[in-house]
Design goal:
The chain is α/β, with parallel strands linked by helices. It contains 5 helices and 6 strands. It has 2 domains: 31 residues; 127 residues, Glutaredoxin, CATH 3.40.30.10. Strands 1-4-3-2-5-6 form a 6-stranded mixed sheet. The mean pLDDT is 88.
């Protein structure tokens, strides 16, 4: 192969290697919310598809919305922490004044259905991430606490420990606010 053709081929390869990731980065950046969800902000009506016999996504009362992916190990850990929390404090998640936990999957339909079969929590599908986008979430796990007035009271992305969640949900259940 002639040296000029090698240079052209190498130049084209470098251009592709640099341009495609840059274009994907710009696309991702443009898809990010312009602002984070603010405490006190009114939550829009959310429509996620119930999975495995779950009732429609709760729109009233104190709610904990946990966005997750069934294939995310961090998400699995957070869901397990809420399971342990329900074992410790079952009254927090049932009866009057209960916090309604809704697991909202941004994963594929098949993996979400399989996940829903193995959990006692209500599971909802948000495969196109429109609900998560409305809540200005970027990655999972993403937890949003919503009070009975339909205002965001708390949000965070990532993992926290069981003790942290116990203090958080305990305060939220008692007062509708977070510590």
């Amino acid at each position: 192969m002639a040296p000029m053709k090698k240079k052209i081929l190498l130049g084209t390869a470098l251009l592709v290697v640099i341009t495609i990731p840059a274009a994907l980065g710009v696309r991702f950046y443009r898809s990010l919310p312009s602002a984070t969800l603010a405490v006190g902000e009114t939550i829009p009506t959310l429509a996620a598809q119930p999975v495995g016999g779950a009732s429609p996504l709760p729109q009233q009362g104190r709610r904990a919305l946990l966005f997750f992916s069934p294939s995310c190990s961090y998400c699995e850990e957070v869901v397990a922490q809420f399971g342990k929390l329900r074992e410790r404090r079952p009254e927090w998640f049932s009866g009057d004044g209960a916090v309604k936990l809704a697991l909202i999957s941004v994963g594929a339909n098949d993996e979400t259905v399989a996940f829903a079969q193995n959990t006692a929590w209500p599971v909802y599908l948000d495969a196109d991430r429109q609900v998560m986008k409305a809540m200005r979430g970027v990655s999972v796990p993403y937890l949003v606490l919503v009070d009975e007035r339909n205002h965001a009271q708390y949000r965070h992305t990532g993992m926290r420990g069981l003790d942290y969640h116990e203090k958080l949900i305990g305060a939220f259940r008692q007062t509708g606010r977070t510590p």
